[in-house]
UniProtKB/TrEMBL annotation:
Transmembrane spans: none
HAMAP family (UniProt xref): tRNA_sel_U_synth
Keywords for this protein: Selenium
Phylogenetic classification of the source organism: Bacteria, Bacillati, Bacillota, Clostridia, Eubacteriales
SUPFAM superfamilies per UniProt: P-loop containing nucleoside triphosphate hydrolases, Rhodanese/Cell cycle control phosphatase
Gene3D superfamilies assigned to the protein according to its UniProt record, in alphabetical order: Rhodanese-like domain
Domain Rhodanese: 15-136
UniProt cross-references to PROSITE patterns, sorted A to Z: RHODANESE_3
Name of the protein: tRNA 2-selenouridine(34) synthase MnmH
Record gene name: mnmH
Organism in which the protein naturally occurs: Clostridium gallinarum
Amino acid sequence: MLKKDNQTNEFKEIVLNNIPLIDVRAPIEYEKGGFLNSTNIPILNNEERHMIGICYKEKGNEEATKLGYKLVSGKIREDRINSWINFIETHKNTMIYCFRGGSRSRIAQEWISEALNKDILRLKGGYKAFRNYLIENLSIQNQNYKPIILTGYTGSGKTKILKNIDNSIDLEGIANHRGSSFGSHVSPQPTQINFENNLAYDLIKKQSKNFEYLIFEDEGKNIGKNFIPQEFYDFFHSGKKILVSSTIEERVENTLVEYVIDSQKEYINYYGIENGLAEWFNYIYSSMDRLKKKLGGDRFKKVLDELNFAYKTQLNSGKIDYHKYWIELFLKEYYDPMYSYTLQKDRNNKTIIFEGNSNEVLEYLKNLK
C-alpha cells in the first residue's frame, strides 16, 4: 500500500545533491522567491488561488477545499498531473512542496502517487521551513570558516581571480550584477529572497568541503538592487584583506573587456545587431548621468565627450580602443579617489595580509584552503 504522506526535512541533502523540486505554489508566489533546483508546476493558477482565498475568508476551510477540488477537476486535473509526471520521469528523486507543506502539496503528492503507483517525498513544512533553514545558514554561528576579503582598485581583476579558486563566494555572480555604477546585466537580478536563498546554497556547498578560508570580494552592502544581510555582511567584512595591485593600463583593459566588449555582446544577443549597441550606449549614458553631481560639471562633460566620441568612432569604424579614454578618466576621477581613502585606512589598521599582482594573489589564494 502506498504511503501518500511521506515527508522529509533533510534540507542539507537537497542542497548538496541538487535534488530537483516541484513547487506547486501559484506563479505569483514563486516569482517572489523559490529555490535554485526548483521548477514551478502549480496545482492552482493565480486566479484559482485568488478565488479559493476569498472563499476561505468568507466560508472557511471546508468550503474552500471543496471549491479547490471543483476548480481542479476533469481535464484540468489530468493535465496538471501529467505535467508533474513528465517532470518526475526526467528528473530522478524529485520532491514536492507548497508554502507550508499543507493541503496543496499533500493533494498533489496523493495524485502523483496514485498515477505512478509509487511514493514521492514532500518537504515537511514546505517552502517556509526550507527558507528558514537557508536563512539560518547566513547567521554568524553557522559560518565555520575564516573570511578573507579580496580588495583592490576598480578594474584590478578581482572577480576574475575569484572565478579561478574553489574556495570563493562570488557575491556579484549570485546577485547577477557587476557591483558598480554600470554593473547591470541585460538579464534581471534575482529577487532579494532568491539572492539570500542562492547565497545560502553556495555557502552550504562550500562549507561542506571543509575549507579553512572562504574568499569574498570587497563589496558594499548593496549589489545593485540586492543587499547583503547585515549580520552576514558584518561577519565577512571582519576578515583580513588581500590587495590586488594593478597598473592603470591593466585596469583600463580589464574594464574595457568587461563593460564594453562583453557587455555589448550581451546587449546585441538580447536586442539584436541593429538595436544592441544603441541600447548599450543608452544604458552607459544614463548610468553616467546619475553620477553627474558626484563627478562635477567639468569632469562630467569631459568624460561624456570622450564616451560620445568613442561610441561614434566605433559605429563608423568598428574600433573599440577609443573607449579606453573615457574609462581611464572615469577610473581616475570617480572611483580612485573613493578607494584611496579606504586603502589608506586599511594600511593604517594593518588589515592587509598580502599584496601582489593578479598572478601572485592567485597563487597565494590557491594555498589558502
